[in-house]
Amino acid sequence: MENRMRLSTLEQLLDTLDHLFDDGSDWTRRNAHDHWADLFGRPDHPLNSDLPDANLVDWQKRGLLPTTDLPRTGSKMALDIGCGLGRNTRWLAAQGYCATGVDLSRYAVSHARERSPDSSASYAECDVLREEIPGGPFDVVYDSGCFHHLAPHRRLSYLTALSACLKPGGLFGICTFAPGEMGSVADDLTLFRQGRLEGGTAYSTDDLQAVFSELELLDSGPLSPDNAEAVFAMGFLNAALFRRPE
């Protein structure tokens, strides 16, 4: 008799649903081709930048992100999920955090290290959906552009990982595609049925509040440039800041 697998665990279900997107549109899985290397390797691509996100600088100035007057360098821990070339990781380190950037892409992690010779930031290659995140728990977890590339079912994996690595009372910041600006607005069932992700999912503030319902929303809004400083700001992006209850 043919040996058929019968699902008995959540992880088996998630792994099975991964195969619905074997067309190559899911860039949050390791495979033979590193799609992120194609983007980060382009000198003209917006992600090939060393500027911090505008919302991080804004949150710091408004006192929402406690990155000043730290008792000593490295007294607070920060994690940058999907760090890319490390621009936000380096900024967090410069504010006094013991900052760690993690990314699925070996190319990204390697080049982030090359760009950080004078920074205290550290980097690790890690699949945060399927592997234990090193170095936690963290006072601040930040995600600029990773979450909106997840397949719908992998939001569950993300929430589990976030719960494991974010300290009670810690801050979670996120930057995603904004509805009507960039990213798909298709519902989850449509994505499952078509077996294809559409380059990223757009999330409104209400969407993010629904997904991260166990966290307290502190701030949200589009990425707007601060004319006083050089920052990374794109009008098609939304940002939100949450706090995990004590």
H/E topology pattern:
HHHEHEHEEHEHHEE
Per DSSP E runs of 2 or more residues, the count of β-strands stands at 7
Shape: globular
Which class of secondary structure composition applies to the elements?
A: alpha/beta
Over the alpha carbons, how many angstroms does the gyration radius reach?
18 Å
Largest sheet: 7 strands, mixed
- Rounded to the nearest angstrom, the distance between the terminal CA atoms is 53 Å
Task: Provide the low-confidence segments as ranges.
Answer: none
Strands ordered across the widest β-sheet = 3-2-1-4-5-7-6
- Helical content, roughly? 25-40%
Counting DSSP H or I runs of 4 or more residues, the number of helices is: 8
Q: Quick check: average pLDDT?
A: 91
Strand content: 15-25%
